Structures are given as C-alpha cells and as structure tokens.
Amino acid sequence: MSFTASEEVIVAVNKNGSSGSCTGVIIQKEDDRLQVALRGAGLVLRHGSLIHLKSCGSPKVTAWGSVQHVGLAGDVKLVQVSSVRYEGQNNARAARCAIDLQISANYCDRDQNGKKTFGQTINISVSGVLARFKTTLSEGISVQMVLHLGAEKEVEAIARVVRIVQGTESASGGYEVGLEFERFIRGYEHLIRMAPPVAQP
C-alpha cells in the first residue's frame, strides 16, 4: 500500500514526532518520488533531510524519504521527496535482507550512564534491524546506532529496542535484539540500496 494524490499525511523528522511534526497533502506521486504541500508553518527542512511520512487516513501506511528540494508557492511550503521507501503494509514487517554487518550502539543504562556495545546484524529492512549484541539491551530504550558497511560507508540512526528474542542468549550474555528506526542521521541512501523494497499494489 502506498500514498495517493490528495492524501493527508503527517510529516516528521523523528518517527515518533518528538522533534516536531506537521500535516501535509500529497500533491504528486511518481515512482519513488512525492511532492508534499506542508500546512501551517511546516518544518525546517533542507536538501538531504530525512523525513518520516504517515497517512492520516491509514496510519499503518508509513514511509521514509529524502528531501530533494524545498520551495514556496505563495505561503505554502512545497517539498520534493525522493527515495521513498514504504515500511510495510498492515501488520506485516517490511521485507528483510539477510546480511552480516558490524553494528555499534550507544545507550544509557538505568542509572543514565553512557554505554556502548558492539554486535553483528542478522537482517535489515527500511524499518529496522535484527542484530546480536555482545551486551544485553533493555526493551524500550533508545540507542544511537551505526551500521558499518565498509569503504567508509555508514548508516547512523536513532532506533528503539522493540524486541528481545528470548532463547538466543549467547555465552557472553548477549541476545538477538530487534531495533526499529526512529530517526536517520546519515547514510539513508546506503540503506535503501541494500534493503529490499516493499511490494506495492
């Protein structure tokens, strides 16, 4: 399922809207590109900004995209979005790609002490990562993670621990952990080259 022309959407820099969001309307849709008219004051966006879009009418229709251009038509802010990747439809998880990459994650423990752990990915998608970390992470916490792709290519994002896979504990105490992307900081373009697109009707 994908967005349609005239559909109202919520546009945010963070998936959970914690850094601000606004509503907008899809003006045009072509392949993996959208033109969105933002309502009100809109958001401060520039070329290369990564944004999350969610349908107002069908909240399970969500996508990430990269801002290509921001312009004004009168007092309306028009945003050209490219490399749009849908997270999935209904409750099905986005298509996943089995891949073994190094991953690191910075997080705070229960006493708010800064910690860092390392691990390996099991699979990735445009919505998240399944990885095995050397240290146990608590469900619900946010981490600043970096996927190391080699050749100086990295994907950096804020992600939330949404699942601990029980029964996967290693001798060192780590678990397989499901992470959901909340905000991309850099490297989105590398991720979409690896992660399989979600089929759309």
Structural category: mainly beta
Contiguous runs where pLDDT drops below 50 for at least 5 residues: none
The number of helical segments is 1
**CATH first level of the largest domain: which class?**
Mainly Beta
Cα(first) to Cα(last) distance is 6 Å
Shape: elongated
What percent of the residues sit in helical stretches (DSSP H or I)? under 10%
Radius of gyration: 17 Å
Number of domains: 2
Order of helices and strands: EEEEEEEEEEEEEH
Give me the side-by-side strand order of the main sheet. Answer: 1-2-3-6-5-4
Q: Which oligomerization state do the chains in this entry correspond to?
A: single chain
Q: Count the strands?
A: 13
Q: Mean pLDDT, nearest integer?
A: 85
Topology of this structure?
Blueprint lengths: L7 E5 L8 E10 L2 E6 L11 E6 L6 E12 L2 E11 L10 E2 L3 E7 L5 E11 L3 E6 L8 E9 L2 E13 L10 E11 L1 H7 L7
Antiparallel strand pairs: 1-2, 1-4, 2-3, 3-6, 4-5, 5-6, 7-9, 8-9, 8-11, 9-10, 10-13, 11-12, 12-13
Write up what this structure looks like.
The protein is 3% helix and 54% strand. By secondary structure, the protein is mainly beta. The chain contains one helix and 13 strands; from the N terminus they run βββββββββββββα. It has one helix at residues 188-194; strands spanning 8-12, 21-30, 33-38, 50-55, 62-73, 76-86, 97-98, 102-108, 114-124, 128-133, 142-150, 153-165, 176-186. The protein folds into two domains: 8-86, Beta Barrel (Thrombin, subunit H); 97-194, predicted glycosyltransferase like domains (Thrombin, subunit H). It has a six-stranded antiparallel barrel. Strands 8-9-10-13-12-11 form a six-stranded antiparallel beta barrel. The longest helix has 7 residues, at 188-194.
